[in-house]
């Protein structure tokens, strides 16, 4: 297909890029954005995921407008929030922060929300919010110490990566698994396809 529309992923996350690649989609560019991810007072986790996805899309769009090669591209942004009740878990950067997250998640249910925001070539904004419920086993001291020592938690919302070692902590998952990894594939491809992006273009040579 000549003139295939371009796609910009407003993220530097290797997990999000890997998920898109898994679905046969190769973005032309990655445009990670710097947005303040601290919740405003009283902001619920769902609203936070939606707001941050939109903010990331807007920030990436501003850079795309200045790039002649990319002008008119689709822009895809996402933000994933892990929450216990109304409490938003941080993206753990410090060991003690990760330990606190894991102690809170141990033996109980939590929810993972991903807001996705797609900007079309006509600069129309389309948003979806996806929710997955996850239950962890009760973590032993050995589980906790070994996982913290692995370093896998670093930079991850809620202090864990389900696609890695922490997958062994999951007792039950209701909803989208890829949502917990960081980009719900079914909903993302539905959004892209619905707005005219050729999601199957790369499938011919996928094997």
If you had to describe this structure to a student in words, what would you say it looks like?
With 207 residues, the chain is α/β, with parallel strands linked by helices. It has a single domain, classed as Maf protein, CATH 3.90.950.10. Helix content is 32%, strand content 22%. It contains 6 helices and 7 strands. The protein has helices at 14-22, 45-65, 95-105, 141-150, 177-181, 185-194, and strands at 7-9, 29-30, 74-84, 87-88, 109-119, 125-136, 170-174. Strands 1, 2, 3, 4, 5, 6 and 7 form a 7-stranded mixed β-sheet that branches. A hairpin with a 2-residue loop joins strand 3 (74-84) and strand 4. It starts with 6 loop residues before the first strand and ends in a 13-residue tail after the last helix.
* Number of separate domains: 1
CATH topology: Maf protein
Low-pLDDT regions: none
Count of individual helical segments: 6
- Strand percentage: 15-25%
Shape estimate: globular
Span from first to last CA? 19 Å
Mean pLDDT: 94
Summarize the structure.
By secondary structure, this protein is an alpha/beta fold. Helices cover about 30% and strands about 20% of the residues. It contains 6 helices and 7 strands.
Task: Give the topology, please.
Blueprint: E1 7-9, H1 14-22, E2 29-30, H2 45-65, E3 74-84, E4 87-88, H3 95-105, E5 109-119, E6 125-136, H4 141-150, E7 170-174, H5 177-181, H6 185-194
Parallel strand pairs: 1-2, 1-3
Antiparallel strand pairs: 3-4, 3-5, 5-6, 6-7
């Amino acid at each position: 297909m000549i003139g295939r529309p371009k796609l910009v992923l407003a993220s530097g996350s290797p997990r999000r890029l890997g998920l898109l690649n898994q679905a046969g989609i190769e973005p032309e560019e990655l445009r990670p954005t710097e947005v303040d991810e601290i919740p405003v007072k009283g902001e619920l986790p769902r609203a936070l995921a939606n707001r941050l996805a939109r903010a990331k899309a807007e920030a990436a769009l501003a850079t795309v407008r200045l790039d002649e090669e990319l002008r008119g591209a689709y822009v895809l942004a996402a933000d994933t929030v892990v929450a216990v009740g109304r409490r938003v878990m941080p993206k753990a950067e410090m060991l003690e922060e990760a330990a606190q997250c894991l102690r809170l998640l141990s033996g109980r249910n939590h929810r993972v929300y991903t807001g996705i925001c797609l900007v079309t070539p006509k600069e129309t904004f389309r948003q979806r919010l996806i929710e997955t419920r996850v239950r962890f086993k009760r973590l032993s001291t050995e589980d906790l110490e070994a996982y913290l020592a692995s370093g896998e938690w670093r930079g991850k919302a809620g202090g864990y990566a389900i696609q890695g070692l922490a997958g062994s902590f999951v007792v039950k998952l209701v909803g989208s698994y890829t949502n917990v990894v960081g980009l719900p594939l079914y909903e993302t491809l539905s959004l892209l396809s619905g707005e005219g992006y050729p999601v199957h273009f790369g499938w011919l040579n996928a094997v």
